[in-house]
Design brief:
Largest sheet: 6 strands, mixed
Strand content: 5-15%
Number of helices: 15
Structural class: alpha/beta
Number of strands: 10
Order of helices and strands: HEHEHEHEHEHEHHEHEHHEHHEHH
Strand order of the largest sheet: 1-2-10-7-8-9
Helix content: 40-55%
Radius of gyration: 21 Å
Bound molecules: pyridoxal-5'-phosphate
Distance between the termini: 50 Å
């Protein structure tokens, strides 16, 4: 038969490896199954013999990897009879929680830091009908409040401290292995709460334990310099970075992430906001791939470590692009000052502008 079965989301695909039952009502928007794109131009131009891939998680239903965890978290919340979910968020978790709650027909409450959330994410939380509580404080304060309020309110927390989130997110590692037919040598991720790097390590480890592969990658976590508790070796109180998705000073998966570093013989490093934005632009201009600033942290760090030889020539490297560039149009446009040319609606000026810019 020339037709393949319809893709119906990652819980259906990996149900044997996820905590669901045959009769579990699955809340899905077709998340997962994202492209693993091999970079062509960037490795050639930096003159390094590297097999460099990006896992474009921005192509999930709400535009970030959070959907992988949210399909699981909301499915289990509904299975347990819960009528409302709650999260603190730098943006993408709120967008995802709002969408999956809408799909499930339950309520969503989201706490976001005032003024520090990208416009697209705010729009998503609002349009899906979540109750948006904008707090005069940062993510870490929102997270503390969510934990407190959930103790005596009938709401289920869907932040990555909800163990079902990491279960869903581990499937990204499964997909990478299935495409490469092995695990890559290195896997680079941006790190905020460090749930995702921990989830990937779980996924890689599971496929190793089950004999599906015989290798695991070294895991590298990159943080923004202004929000780099793993580099400082301690929590920090006033994180700041243009990469708002990882503007986190008190990571929730602190212990797990250190174990990932040890278990995988990996490392943490930091990138400046300038490096992050440069990598975002490089990827858009050289490869046609638009990710949000936080996501570009993985590539920014990887390129530096490839350049220094810390990631040796001949390696295969996967960088996770955690979220879509359209999430944060303001930051993108700010990087392109002078990028739009105004002309009269007449052939002459239009042709002149083209000819001038052809060279
Ligand atoms: C949530 C998020 C991160 C950080 O993931 P953690 O699991 O918190 O480390 C990175 N990038 C984007 C775009 C995100 O939405």
């Amino acid at each position: 038969m020339p037709f393949r079965p319809r893709y119906t989301g990652l819980i259906d695909k990996y149900r044997d490896r996820l905590p669901v039952h045959d009769d579990t009502r699955i809340i899905s928007l077709g998340e997962g199954n994202t492209p693993l794109i091999r970079l062509n131009n960037i490795p050639r131009e930096c003159g390094r013999d590297i097999d460099l891939y990006v896992k474009y998680e921005g192509l999930n239903p709400t535009g970030s990897f959070k959907d992988r965890g949210m399909t699981m978290a909301v499915t289990k919340a509904v299975e347990d009879g819960c009528k409302a979910v709650i999260c603190a968020s730098t943006g993408n978790t709120s967008a995802s929680a709002a969408a999956y709650a809408a799909r499930a027909g339950i309520a969503a409450f989201v706490l976001i830091p005032e003024g520090k959330i990208a416009l697209g994410k705010l729009a998503q939380a609002m349009i899906h009908g979540a109750v948006v509580l904008q707090i005069r404080g940062n993510f870490d304060e929102g997270m503390r409040l969510v934990k407190e309020v959930a103790q005596n309110t009938p709401v289920t927390i869907v932040n990555s401290i909800n163990p079902f989130r990491l279960q869903g997110q581990k499937t990204a590692a499964f997909e990478i292995i299935e495409e490469l037919e092995r695990a890559p040598d290195f896997h680079c991720l941006p790190v905020g709460n460090a749930g995702n790097i921990s989830a990937h390590w779980m996924g890689y480890s599971e496929y190793l334990e089950h004999g599906i592969v015989n290798n695991r990658p070294r895991m590298i976590g990159y943080q923004a310099s202004g929000a780099a508790p793993f580099l400082r070796g301690a929590m920090i109180d006033n994180p700041d970075t243009v990469a708002t998705a990882i503007r986190i000073g008190h990571p929730q998966s602190w212990e797990l992430a250190w174990k990932v570093r040890e278990g995988s013989d990996g490392w943490f490093d930091e990138c400046s906001d300038e490096e992050i934005l440069a990598a975002q632009k490089l990827l858009t201009e050289k490869e046609g791939i638009f990710c949000e600033p936080a996501s570009a942290t993985s590539l920014a760090g990887a390129l530096r470590d490839i350049d220094s030889g810390k990631i040796p020539a001949g390696s295969s490297v996967v960088c996770t692009l955690t979220g879509h560039g359209l999430k944060d149009p303001d930051t993108a446009i700010r990087q392109c000052a002078g990028g739009v040319i105004s002309v009269d609606a007449a052939l002459g000026p239009v042709r002149d502008a083209i000819v001038e810019n052809l060279a």
